[in-house]
Amino acid sequence: MLDRELGWLPGIDARLAHSFTESWSINIHGAYYRGRVDYDGSTQQGIPHSTDTMTRLTRFGARAERVIYKKTSLFIGAQAHRWNRNIQDNNNISGISETYKWLEYNLGLNSYIYINQKDILSFEAAYLLTRNATIDVDLSRVDLGTATLNIGDGSGGRLALNWKRTSENNFNYGLSLFYEAWNFGRSNTKRTSGGASSVFVTEPRSETRNIGLKFNIEYMF
After folding, report:
1. Is the pTM of this model over 0.70?
2. Domain region containing 144
């Protein structure tokens, strides 16, 4: 493992859903997360190095869902992701700016575990495919130019446990605990351009693991 980043990314998630029938529904959604995380890795010479990374993660997507058995639904969807990493300069070692962009296709099940007059508890599981991923590498702060690499396809999964408290004023409240993971394959190798000199850059295989907690406010109209 060449480097590791760990930290909290607070953000906001918005969703608009519409039910066509008792069995069919669709939704569109977007999310934005931003924060500073700890970076632990090494330099090109293998010297241990620690700094911070300013991180922004943006998502936009849609999914269709159909009830297939009682309180269990099958869904299929897609999301576009953009992940900005600005690794900070530290200890006289220059950082680097990277922007990942990729498409995610997902297929999964959503099932109600417990329902009473006011509370709903549900569980969701999905299989993910990452496709058409690229990374923009910016080394201009050390005048080595930029390059765009194609990243290898990967896969992953997402699990979520959702609790919702219903009310009579069209507002519902709840919490969601989720875990998600995905992988990227190794990229191609490319020479940078646009700087005083150039270097060859490669993105090795990478893995992402996220654990999160969401507070949800839902309005029914």
Report:
1. yes
2. 4-219
